[in-house]
Amino acid sequence: MKKLHTLLFSATLLMGVAAHAQLKVEIAGVGSNQIPVAVAAFADESVAPEQVSAIIRADLERSGVFKVIDARQAISDTANIDLAAFKASGADALVVGSVQRLADGRFQVRYKLLDTVKQSQLSQLSDAVTARNTRLEGHRIADDVYEKLTGVRGIFSTRITYVKQDPAARDYKLVVADADGEGEQVAAHGREPIISPSWSPDGTKVAYVSFELRKPVIYVQNLVTGQRTVVANEKGNNSAPAWSPDGTKLALALSKTGNTQIWIVNADGSGLRRVSNSNGIDTEPQFSHDGQSIYFTSDRSGGPQIYKMSVSGGQATRVTFNGNYNISPRVSPDGKTLAWISQRDGGFSLYAMDLASGQEQRLADGATEPSFSPNGKYIMYATKGGGRTALAVVSVDGRVKQRLSTQAGNIREPSWGPFMK
Question: What biological-process GO terms show up in the record (predicted)?
Fold first, then answer.
């Protein structure tokens, strides 16, 4: 089990990350039965700092769900449109809109989603946004298109966090960015490793582990106020923070009593209590979607496997049985799917299991550190290839794959943020 301990606390430091390059998204694979959608340029969108229609188009293409058709013209949301002509061109839906600069410096962004088959309007939005939020508005519109055409909430306006390192400067950064890697902001940085970021359910805080005190200590960074709180600085290792669904507590892995075990603490660092009590190593806790159970990794059966137990502690139930090395459990937001990393055939792969049936699927090879999108349709993970570590995204059916990379250095330790209210 020393090998597992090394993987969880040391191997994460082997793949560094670059400090300043924006992420580049590469799409490799598309879903089946794509929905054909035509996206027109928005009327007068050149007045805004971002081309809204281009953001929408890129989001929809990246999802793998849509076949995006270029309307090859600018069409205002107020225009009279020949929907039959767009239907004849193969589009089942059409996105149109406009942008207007307001006297106060903001931009009025209007959009409509039209059904070319039923010759009807499916949705519309109109928002006044600052120049800084123009890109976010494009993501929000793409979210609306995704939801209206699939019935599932879109995740384009959500955020992600990950760790970047400049190998030359030995500088580690905890970065927050849009789901497409744009709009990077540094939430924390230092010369010692940063690992295991985890979003609070309301999207205002990130818990993480820093080695700045020459040992792993758990912090919570408030992204709104900038305030940082020490949540766990106990004797030994403090690692693997994971938020409860209501945001009031964190599950942790602490070695303060010897072997690493699962503990729960209030979000302000008070009320620490032990949950697991085994002779082995229990680590990597994750709350179930209802907050009543905790999934975790343990070697109590001889090798690392995933278990489940009540938040009150007690008897644990083994969840994974295929393969001798299963770690890093993650539960989908609806509680129906478990994702984890399994070492089989000499490499680490991302697997997903339907918890009701027990049926599992291999989604990606060369994967570590999975994280579900808030709608449960995608999983982000770290992967190494071409001499670099990058982030990648795969759909839960395995059909859509993306890679988010930088031109120099590496990025890893992804965590996908929640829906923002």
Answer: cell division; protein import
Check residue 175 and report its DSSP letter.
E
Residues 6+ apart with CB under 8 A from 88: none
Task: Report which of residues 183 and 318 the model is more confident about.
Answer: 318
Whether residue 289 contacts residue 245, with contact meaning beta carbons closer than 8 Å, is answered with yes
**Pick from 227, 241, 231: nearest CA to 271:** 231
Tell me if 29 is assigned to some domain.
no
> Could you tell me which residues come within 8 angstroms of residue 137 by beta carbon, excluding any fewer than 6 positions away?
52, 109, 127, 129
Q: What is the CATH number of the domain that holds 127?
A: 3.40.50.10070
User: Coil, strand or helix: which one is 140?
Assistant: helix
- First-to-last alpha carbon distance for the chain, in angstroms, is 42
Q: Are residues 162 and 77 in the same domain?
A: no
- Look at residue 288 and tell me whether its pLDDT is greater than 50: yes
Beta strands in 86-170 (DSSP E): 93-101, 107-115, 120-129, 159-166
Half-sphere exposure of 70 (CA within 13 A, CB side): 5
The residue with tokens 């007690």 is 314
Domain membership of residue 173 (yes or no) is: yes
Strand order in 388-395's β-sheet? 24-27, 401-405, 388-395, 378-385, 367-372
Same domain? 184 vs 277: yes
What letter represents residue 83's amino acid? L
The reply to whether 116 falls in a domain is yes
pLDDT above 90: residue 249: yes
The residue among 15, 12, 9, 13 whose CA lies nearest residue 283 is 9
Specify the pTM: 0.91
Residue 14 has pLDDT above 70, yes or no: no
**CA triplet 295, 299, 301: central angle to 5 degrees?**
100
pLDDT at 6: 33
Select from 150, 181, 208 the last residue of a domain.
150
**pLDDT higher than threshold 50 for residue 11:** no
User: pLDDT class for 18, splitting at 50, 70, 90?
Assistant: very low
Let me know whether 237 and 120 are in one domain: no
Do residues 64 and 173 share a domain?
A: no
Total domains in the chain come to 2
Q: Give the list of residues 6+ apart from residue 387 with CB closer than 8 angstroms, or none.
A: none
Residue 128 belongs to what domain range? 34-150
Distance CA 189, CA 30 (A): 36
Domain shared by 174 and 312, yes or no: yes
27 falls in which pLDDT band (50, 70, 90)? low
